[in-house]
Amino acid sequence: MRFIQTFELAPFLDSFVSLFSAFVLGTAIGAERQYRQRVPGLRTNVLVAVGAAAFVDLAARIGGTEGAVRVIAYVVSGVGFLGAGTIMKEGANVRGLNTAATLWASAAVGACAGADMVAEAVMVTIFILMGNTLLRPVVNLINSRPLDTIASEGEFTVRVTVNDEAVPTVRNQLTRQLSTANLPISEIETEEVSDTVTDLVATLVATSIDAKALDAALANLRTQPDVRHASWEMNTAGSE
To answer: What's the mean pLDDT in 180-206?
Structure first.
């Protein structure tokens, strides 16, 4: 058998240390995810870490350093594809980004272990666990703070529904109300709703909007007899 001819104890033990290290460190990362009841959890993170370690170790033994480097590049892209499957979009919300990032980081741990950099793999694992645990209270604190001003990269749109004959008058009132509130307008478009009703759609140029000032401006417009509806919304580029 070729196995008997090619088997060498020292390289085998080296591979065992790499894979066992990836298993233990992947377990540490996955246990935290499992405790948080996140999917993928324990087993997936372990498999990603061990799989990455196995591929890198195999490439290093067969093709040397150059082969290992090429395989690491494929591991990065392959696990990125796997992580994309955990990301879900629910309306304006995006979920699973942290889970995908954790899988990606687990692969980095496995790649370090497979390259015989066990100490570096332990260090990466510690940082991953710190990111998923120690930073959680900071995130909760930030999210719990009330925001009087909405600051985000996005587009702010004001929509006012009016009777057709009052479009010019309400357009002037809308411009004046927003300008008084220091909410500069990029453009105002009209959208026909029916034969007698038109929407005035104003796009604001600022990326930081005082919500109370905008609500107050629209409240004044709603008192006008020809205004049927007035509201605003923010269309963000994306969030976690």
So the answer is: 84
DSSP helix/strand/coil, 234 = strand
CA atoms of 73 and 80, how far apart (whole Å): 11
**In the chain, how long is the greatest CA-to-CA distance?**
93
Distance between CA atoms of 170 and 153, rounded to whole angstroms? 28
| 189 CB-contact burial (10 Å; exposed 0-12 / middle 13-18 / buried 19+) | exposed
- Locate CATH 3.30.70.260 in the chain: 149-236
For residue 201, report the phi and psi dihedrals to the nearest 5 degrees: -115, 110
φ/ψ of 89, rounded to 5, equals -110, 125
Q: How far apart are CA 96 and CA 104, in angstroms?
A: 12
Structure confidence by residue, pLDDT tens digits, 93-118: 567 788 888 889 999 999 999 999 99
Spell out the alpha helix ranges (H) of 134-229.
136-144, 167-180, 211-222
Q: Would you identify the CATH topology of the domain 149-236?
A: Alpha-Beta Plaits (3.30.70)
**Residue of 136, 149, 160 lying closest to 206 (CA atoms):** 149
- What single DSSP character describes residue 36? T
* pLDDT score of 161: 92
Instruction: Say if residue 168 is preceded by a cis peptide, omega within 30 of 0.
Output: no
How does residue 25 score in pLDDT terms, banded at 50, 70 and 90? Answer: very high
d(CA 24, CA 109): 10
Buried b (16+ CB within 10 A) or exposed e, 132-154: beeeeeeeeeeeeeeeeeeeeeb
pTM of the model: 0.57
